[in-house]
Design a protein that fits this description.
Layout: H1 2-5, H2 7-20, E1 21-22, E2 27-30, H3 35-61, H4 69-96, E3 97-99
Parallel strand pairs: 2-3
Antiparallel strand pairs: 1-2
Helix pairs in contact: 2-3, 2-4, 3-4
Length: 102
């Protein structure tokens, strides 16, 4: 469940970054002082939820009492996938950010 929920903050941070991306500059331009902590916090929430989902999925995947092995593996792989995308998104923001000072 954590892996599925982690998709929402990832989508939110990607949409917000795309809206502020300026292709002619190749940068994410922002002026609001709360933009950077918002993007970084949302990316951190996505990373945390996906990591928890991946750990829970991996931990329960090999248990004999688990009747839903496929769901556990799906949660693990979805968590790892979202975690990878969240890390890439965080790194892209860190390298492409440009804060405007007025």
């Amino acid at each position: 469940m954590c892996s599925v929920v982690s998709i929402l903050p990832l989508i939110a941070v990607v949409v917000v970054m795309i809206l502020r991306y300026k292709p002619n500059l190749g940068l994410i331009v922002f002026g609001n002082p709360l933009y950077q902590p918002g993007v970084m916090g949302t990316a951190a929430v996505a990373m945390l939820l996906s990591a928890v989902g991946a750990i829970l999925g991996f931990n329960s995947a090999g248990q004999r009492r688990n009747e839903h092995q496929k769901r556990s593996w799906a949660g693990f792989f979805l968590g790892v996938f979202v975690l990878s995308l969240a890390i890439i998104t965080f790194a892209a923001f860190w390298m492409l950010k440009w804060k405007l000072t007025v």
